[in-house]
Specification:
By secondary structure, the protein is mostly beta strands. It has one helix at 4-7, and strands spanning 17-19, 22-28, 34-44, 47-49, 54-57, 62-64, 74-76, 81-87, 94-104, 108-118. The protein has one domain (4-118): Immunoglobulin-like, CATH 2.60.40. Helices cover 3% and strands 53% of the residues. Strands 1-2-8-5-6 form a five-stranded antiparallel sheet, with no helix packed on it. Strands 3, 4, 7, 9 and 10 form a five-stranded antiparallel sheet that branches. A hairpin with a 2-residue loop joins strand 1 (17-19) and strand 2 (22-28).
Length: 119
């Protein structure tokens, strides 16, 4: 089990921003390469986002949350950024706390909080 304070360091500080369809942020693996086989829920404020509301964007493809599985994983390599796009409400300006839940092929479910501000 990886401690949540270490998992929180996966977040790329300053990457949280609103988009036309919701918000997004970036993660950068600093621990060890793995395969992501599930994502969600992503919690921001009182809202939970999962399923079709969450997508992972890599340099070569975009995978919607429900498409992730052991048969269709997203490789998460050390030092390579990964964007998480969330469709839904935009975040209010100012400080935000977001809880990220994901499932990896080797560790299983991970959960951690990130904090940042939206300009």
């Amino acid at each position: 089990m990886i401690p949540s304070f270490l998992l929180a360091k996966l977040y790329v500080k300053g990457s949280l921003k609103n988009t036309d369809s919701g918000f997004e942020f970036s993660l950068k693996n600093i621990i060890d390469s793995t395969m992501l086989i599930g994502i969600g829920p992503i919690t921001a404020g009182a809202m939970n986002y999962e399923g079709e509301s969450v997508a992972l964007i890599t340099a070569d493809r975009t995978v919607n949350g429900p498409e992730l599985s052991r048969n269709n994983p997203v490789p998460v390599r050390m030092g390579v950024p990964l964007k998480v796009a969330v469709a839904g409400d935009q975040l209010a300006a100012g400080a935000q706390k977001i809880t990220v839940t994901a499932t990896t092929s080797d560790i299983g479910k991970i959960k951690f909080d990130i904090s940042d501000s939206v300009a």
